[in-house]
Amino acid sequence: MPPVLLRRILSLALLAGLAFASSACRDKNAGAVKVIVIGGAPKIRDPALGPLSAPDAVLLASVGQGLVRFDAAGNIVGGLAERWNVSDDGLSYIFRIAATSGPGGRKSTAQQVARIVKRSLAASSANPLKDTLGAVDDIVAMTDRVVEIRLKAPRPNLLALLAQPEFAIVRNGAGTGPFQVAADRARPGQLRLTRAINSPDDGASRSEEIFFAGAAARQAVRAFVDGDTDLILGGSSADLPYALGAKLPRGSLRFDPASGLFGLLPVRKGGVLDDIEVRHVLSQAIDRDALTRALRVPGLVARATVLEPALEGVPDPVQPPWMATAIADRRAALSAEATRLFGNQKPAIRLFLPEGPGSDILFDRLAADWGAIGLTAERAKSVATADFKLVDSVAPSTSPAWFLRQFRCQFVPVCDPQADQLLDAARDTLVAAQRGALMARAAGRIDDAQLFLPLAAPVRWSLVSGRIQGFVGNRYARHTLTDLEQKPSTGAP
């Protein structure tokens, strides 16, 4: 066969192969986007009844938007409110609710919105973010479409809090958008989310459809590897090894630059952890650098302070002096101190951690570090039988108050009443600089007393297929399901 003819045949075959591959890719990606959130079956739940699971939170944010919501990059955009204004003194936020109908033609009035948000802040509410809005003085419907939130003191982070799914607007079990939700009879255990998008320029419309489900981490990762889902959300350090051990497409494992708390909280009063010196020994014995390496999260930095850098209104925290001493050089003195405190009858330190291979790694690291100074660690079966439990929470805003108020005597058994007094004074002050100074002093007392043993930032991971263009990591680890196949126009905050 002449060489020219052979090259032509090979070229045609290559083009045909590329066309077939492209067609196959399109067929695989055709139809609804498939999303799994790690956890149980998602349900529309009233946030006033208590904490939300990861699947419930994503579902609520998708079908029950609040006055504002997050976009793909974690920026604040309009939800029910089409626009808003903030008074010069920062004590009044006025929201204008959009006149357009929500899913199913339902409209929301300012009176309904005010009633639902006030219910989430009521004394009887179990909303986990209720305490973060303690500066709210009143919520008033000024007209059918205008609602005002009045504050006792300025809160620049208010919008970020209102965008959280804990302040979703749900009426009689029905959401306010942007998606409508229905069970998918053809796929038991899945929900079908749909929304119509109308173009304001030419009147054209398009639709989005998502199949949404919850699943255990191992099954979710397997579904992604098999090409049965496009996006996995809700991963944490506890289940990260399932993703790290899978054969994934390059670039599909994504980590959020999450802000928040990841460390050990004393949960038993009247035990060995009542002694501040014991808490100091246990904290200083932890090799945090080895721990962050063991978790295998790019960029994860060890932390030994309750606050993290770049929070609103307070200076960046300074690591305690002992962090500058290598762990190997600390251990002899810590071992001697443990012997002085406990003698020869050293008690076991009991830890309550979530189930998962990542928690096994964390436990093994802590057990090795405490073992190096003559102490033993055990896994507790419940919080009630533990000395420490793991706190693994993403901050809902950049306010340092959220970090510090977790450790008030109202919420934890081992606490500092003077830190509480500082936080109460900070909540009431109108002067931002004074508020920051009070919170910095409270943070210093919490760190000095080791009321919390910080380890690092919380770990949040996702699996993202090539079909998903609208995914951006962000500090809140919140991810909208709108426009998943569209590239976002802005970067992460």
Commentary on this structure:
The chain has 493 residues and is α+β, with helices and mostly antiparallel strands. It is 31% helix and 20% strand. It has 13 helices and 18 strands. Strands 8-9-10-1-11-18-12 form a 7-stranded mixed β-sheet. Strands 15-14-16-13-17 form a 5-stranded mixed β-sheet. Strands 4-5-7-6 form a 4-stranded antiparallel β-sheet, covered by helices on one side. A hairpin with a 5-residue loop joins strand 2 (68-70) and strand 3. Helix 7 (276-284) packs antiparallel against helix 9, helix 8 packs antiparallel against helix 10 and helix 12 (417-428) packs antiparallel against helix 13 (432-448). Residues 1-29 have low confidence and may be disordered.
Which structural traits does this protein have?
about 500 residues; alpha+beta; single chain; 5-stranded mixed beta sheet; disordered N terminus; about 30% helix
How are the SSEs placed, and which strands pair?
Blueprint: H1 3-29, E1 33-38, H2 54-63, E2 68-70, E3 76-78, E4 81-86, E5 92-97, H3 110-121, E6 136-141, E7 146-151, H4 158-162, E8 180-183, E9 191-198, E10 205-215, H5 217-225, E11 231-236, H6 240-244, E12 253-255, E13 260-266, H7 276-284, H8 288-295, H9 327-342, E14 348-352, H10 357-371, E15 376-379, E16 388-394, H11 400-405, H12 417-428, H13 432-448, E17 453-456, E18 460-464
Parallel strand pairs: 1-10, 1-11, 14-15, 14-16
Antiparallel strand pairs: 2-3, 4-5, 5-7, 6-7, 8-9, 9-10, 11-18, 12-18, 13-16, 13-17
